[in-house]
Structures are given as structure tokens and as C-alpha cells.
UniProtKB/TrEMBL annotation:
GO terms for biological process: glyoxylate cycle; malate metabolic process; tricarboxylic acid cycle. Belongs to the LDH/MDH superfamily. MDH type 1 family. Gene3D superfamilies: Lactate dehydrogenase/glycoside hydrolase, family 4, C-terminal, NAD(P)-binding Rossmann-like Domain. The active site is at H219 (proton acceptor). InterPro entries: L-lactate/malate_DH, Lactate/malate_DH_C, Lactate/malate_DH_N, Lactate_DH/Glyco_Ohase_4_C, Malate_DH_AS, Malate_DH_type1, NAD(P)-bd_dom_sf. This is Malate dehydrogenase.
Amino acid sequence: MQCSEQTTSFRIARISAHLRPPQREDGGILSRGNCRAKGGAPGFKVAILGASGGIGQPLSMLMKMNPLVSVLHLYDVANTPGVTADLSHMDTTAVVRGFLGKEQLESALVGMDLVIIPAGVPRKPGMTRDDLFKINAGIVQSLCEGVAKFCPRAIVNIISNPVNSTVAIAAEVFKRAGVYNPKLLMGVTTLDVARANTFVAEVLGVDPKAVNVPVVGGHAGVTILPLLSQVQPSCYFTKQEVEYLTNRIQNGGTEVVEAKAGAGSATLSMAYAAVKYADACLRGLRGDADVIECAFVASEVTELPFFATKVQLGRGGIEVVFPLGPLNEYERAGLEQAKKELKASIEKGISFVRN
């Protein structure tokens, strides 16, 4: 079948619009109304804020591969045109569109079902999560102000470290804007679970996919509390094994930072874990039953306003926040230590927005 010159031009313009969204909505041939990215195949619309970074790029690639994603918006302050062009050549269902700079944040966010925020600087050797806070807190606040304004009903997955503080920052931003829904805000701690499953599987000599270790508390150092007494399938660990596993799980991030010797932090494993959690959120939105993951969320499990524990995800975001379950003496001691540090980190995030 022959195509007219006008039809050919339209198709070319439509493809270009995927890669470089228009600055104006003037009804012309490049307007979003004429762009397939307005609503591709059936599925969900996902935005990644910080898509050009060390976590953002592999995260974007993995989300492009997810069959539940119909539209994937990539936002950053630099390099998104290149990342978008690269990923758009993948023959998967999701339509990819890139957005560059603050002036395009609104276009990146409008209509999104899920927003994933890995934006910020990575941890380097010798850098504490407190050092990260000084840089990343303002970035998260600014992006969450955009979410509050342009897609307040979206599920928000916070990856930017320190998660123990940035989730509190996001909550305060949403409260200030009058759109806070604790069921929609989640700090991604899935990497702690992935590490726990992997390290326990190494000790047991089994497939990590056959292991499930609940990890509660927070997402930094001693606030990361693996509940080895609740490992599935049930097994016994010696005191030495418990101490070894707990220490390694708590310091998994440092292990990677030191191994990379200044070349980066845990970007690939974090991207994998973030996609695993994002997929759980999308399956929940789809209405799948028994979608359960660990996450750092608004909680009444302890006296703290936020705490990581198992949650059940559904159409409205978080449907159930599960209790800790029975803890042994070692875990109870770890819990008290975790809560002390968590309290300070949460208060720091709250104060950052309020002051």
C-alpha cells in the first residue's frame, strides 16, 4: 500500500515526538494528542525521575521490558534525550518519552500511575548517608512538589538515599500541599531483602529464589534488621551465622561502594530491586491477590511514624501493613537499636521541610 507524502511526514513527526516532546500544546502535528505515547498498549503509565543516573538508566531499561508498562516517561536535568533514544529502539511494548529540565517536569508527571524517584548523587567511599542527605534532600523535595501538583494520586516509590529521611521529606511535602495519602508513599527497601535472600542462600547452599527473608526497620546500617528467625523455608542458624549474616546484610551497600573503589555505588542491584518492587506495585494496581513485599512506609507497627515491614499492595496502594511477628532476643535488641537511629533520621527529614 502506498503512503501519501503527508501521511509519511505525519508518521515521522509522531516518532520524533516520542523522543523529544514538544514545548507547546498548540494543536500542531507534534502535539501529544497526535502522539501514540499519550496512551500506548493497555497497561500503566510510569515516570522515572532521575532516569539518566547510575540507577536510573538500568532501572529505565528494566521498566521498558515490563509488560505491565504502556507508557514510560524518563525525566532528568541532563542526558534524557540520549537515554530515551537508546531505549526507544528496544522492541518492547512500552512507549518511551524523554523530558529534560524543570520546565518539562509537568509534562513528565501528568497522568502517571507510578512515579519512581532514584534522583540524587550516589554514595562514594567515605561518604555517610548523612553526607548524602545534604545533597539529596533538596532534590527529593523539589521533585515531590512536582508530584503533589501534577499527579497527586500516583503511587510514589522513593529510592533516593537516605531513604530513612527522604520518605519523611516526601510526606511533609505532600502534607503541605494537602494531598498526602500514606497508602501511596513507599520507600524502596527491596535491595535489603534481595541481599538477605542471596546471602542466606549462600550459607544454606540453595537457590536464592527459594528463600524469603523479611527485612524490617529502615534502609541504612543498623536500621536494617533481617528477621532470620522468620526465614522461609524455616531453618536454624548458629549465633555466629546470625551475626555474620546480619552484619553483611546491614553493610551490603558499603561492600559494593568499596569494591567499586570510587567508581560508584550499588546501581545495578538497586535498579533490579527497584523494578522488582515497582512490578509488585503494578500487579497490585492490576488487582492481583497476595502481592506482598517489604517497604519503608507510614506505620503503627512501632511508635515511629515510618517503619519498614511487610506490606500488601493493591489497587489503592498499601492495603495492609503487617506486624513484626515473633522476634527472638537478638532481634529484639536489634530492633531497639534500629528504632533509636531511625527516629533521628525521620525527624531530620521532617525538620528539613518544616524549617
